[in-house]
Design goal:
The chain has about 350 residues and is mostly helical. The chain is about 70% helix and about 0% strand.
């Protein structure tokens, strides 16, 4: 994960687009650097006030994703955003006119209300500020809210060939999980060292413990067969069998607990690998873009280099010019001229 700087943040915000991958990737990066949340939100606020109306919705999608998916890491973003969202909704309500923008922001507010992201009173205040200056839409506010509620119930059945607008709409289709963003989110990508440690731990898991598995396989059959009880001839034999059964139960309970823990670890590892792979894919895309960019720069430089070489080859070689002085005496210097009487 790249280090945090304001310059890096501004670059990422400038490159942000409406695709789910773009919003998701930047959201993960912001959550990873949540210790800088105050500066991040300050920069986000300044930029959303300056971007075109068409991009304000993308900034709000990003804020929604960060607010909802950072809750498991800490409350920093949720609290910090709550302080500036009234100003944001007032700004949008006063400066924007797009019905699409207001409709999608209404869906965000509906989702926040349904999932308890913010208190109903606070969401009502957000909605009032959003619609306060939106005079042309005030009469249709109730109708728009009903339409928003219906649209949030659509099924998650879009294909990869949908347009950017359809892909963006996917971000706000409910999946029934009150603790997650409207689409299936990725987690915080693990550091390589953390991933390696988890992989090594799995190598030493219960299912790889051949010694214990062999002990279980070699348990005597009489400890699991009730019919063997009829063969007991005295009290000592019964006590010996009871001790064997108790040891086997303890062994199996311990091994089953280890297997259950291993299942949890493997589930966690699968999520880590998914998140790590998603991050690497995004980094690969960025690296490919940079490579293409620098290849183009190299081609331009090579073209300039060739032009310079061609220009130099066309210049005359002064050492090969004939002697035009004809053996005449050299011209006098400035000092000689002043010394002439």
């Amino acid at each position: 994960m790249s280090a945090f700087t304001e310059t890096a943040l501004l670059k990422k915000l400038a490159e942000l687009n409406s695709s789910q991958q773009s919003i998701q990737t930047l959201s993960l990066w912001l959550i990873h650097h949540r210790k800088h949340h105050a500066g991040i939100i300050k920069t986000w606020l300044r930029e959303i006030e300056n971007v075109p109306e068409s991009k304000k919705l993308i900034f709000m999608y990003l804020a929604n994703d960060v607010i909802q998916n950072s809750k498991k890491k800490g409350p920093e973003y949720g609290k910090e955003f709550s302080n500036i969202l009234p100003k944001v909704f007032s700004h949008i309500g006063e400066t924007c006119t797009s019905d699409k923008l207001f409709g999608n922001l209404g869906r965000i507010l509906n989702i926040w209300e349904e999932r308890g992201v913010y208190e109903p009173k606070m969401i009502a205040d957000f909605r009032a500020k959003l619609n306060k200056q939106n005079h042309s839409n005030e009469g249709n506010d109730g109708k728009r809210k009903n339409e928003e509620n219906n649209k949030t119930k659509v099924k998650r059945s879009r294909t990869s060939s949908d347009s950017d607008d359809k892909n963006t709409a996917l971000l706000f289709e409910l999946n029934g999980d009150a603790e997650q963003s409207p689409y299936l989110p990725l987690g915080d990508p693990p550091e390589p060292e953390e991933l390696i440690k988890a992989l090594v731990k799995i190598e030493n898991s219960a299912s790889s413990d051949a010694i214990v598995r062999e002990r279980i396989a070699n348990l005597p059959p009489e400890i699991s067969e009730i019919s063997c009880l009829n063969k007991l001839e005295d009290k000592d034999a019964a006590k010996a069998l009871a001790n064997q059964v108790n040891e086997a139960v303890e062994l199996l309970n311990d091994y089953n607990s280890r297997l259950a823990a291993e299942m949890e670890e493997r589930t966690k590892l699968a999520s880590m690998l998914r998140d790590f792979q998603a991050e690497q894919k995004e980094l690969l895309v960025q690296a490919e873009k940079r490579l293409e960019e620098y290849k183009k720069k190299l081609q331009k430089m090579l073209a300039v280099q060739k032009e310079i070489r061609d220009h130099l080859s066309n210049l005359p070689d002064l050492t090969q010019l004939p002697d035009v002085t004809g053996g005449l005496a050299p011209l006098p210097s400035a000092g000689d001229l002043f010394n002439i009487h």
